[in-house]
Design a protein that fits this description.
With 190 residues, this protein is mostly helical. Helices cover 79% and strands 0% of the residues.
Length: 190
């Protein structure tokens, strides 16, 4: 169990680093687009859409990291005043009854959402055609704006992916809290 917990915690730290890098890219891309718009009267719809997608990815990939690092939102005013054993019990129940089922539903529904966006339009028949079409005409749903981004299924795929990572973080937290709760019970029995 502890090996799984450590592996998930390392993965969540990597997701946090990726979200941080995407945030830096987001700020630079937005600054460039604003400068190009107001200084040179030249703006890119594709770059603007890319910043939206980047923002979504930062947010979605940051959620599992926030759960793992304890930076998520909860009613800390009450929670912090409770004894550690009660805190562990609340986290166990909340994670098992609410967080894990929600993650499973969003992963399933998000996968359907992504698959539907991918299946729009002409589909590639080989791996080489996939990569060629991916960068040239796009696969599946694309932006309706002229100059917008292709391959909307990619950003839509971040939804189930991020909730899968959140599910892993929730399972890791559940195991951590279970071990802590079990250890507290053993201390009380001694």
């Amino acid at each position: 169990m502890r090996v799984f917990i450590r592996a998930v915690n390392r993965l969540m730290a990597l997701l946090g680093a990726i979200a941080s890098l995407l945030l830096i890219f987001l700020v630079l891309a937005m600054a460039y687009n604003v400068l190009a718009r107001y200084a040179f009267s030249n703006s890119s719809i594709g770059l603007e859409e890319l910043t939206w997608h980047c923002y979504a990815a930062v947010f979605l990939l940051g959620i599992p990291y926030a759960l793992q690092s304890g930076a998520h939102v909860r009613v800390d005013l009450l929670f912090e005043k409770l004894p550690p054993r009660t805190q562990n019990l609340i986290d166990l129940i909340g994670t098992a009854l609410f967080l894990i089922p929600t993650c499973l539903v969003v992963v399933w529904a998000g996968w359907q959402f992504t698959a539907a966006a991918y299946q729009l339009g002409v589909q590639p028949s080989s791996v080489s055609e996939f990569f060629s079409q991916l960068v040239s005409s796009g696969i599946g749903e694309r932006s309706q704006d002229p100059g917008g981004l292709l391959n909307r299924w990619v950003i839509k795929g971040v939804i189930p992916l991020s909730f899968f990572f959140l599910l892993l973080a929730a399972l890791s937290m559940l195991l951590e809290r279970w071990l802590a709760f079990r250890d507290d019970n053993q201390l009380e029995a001694d």
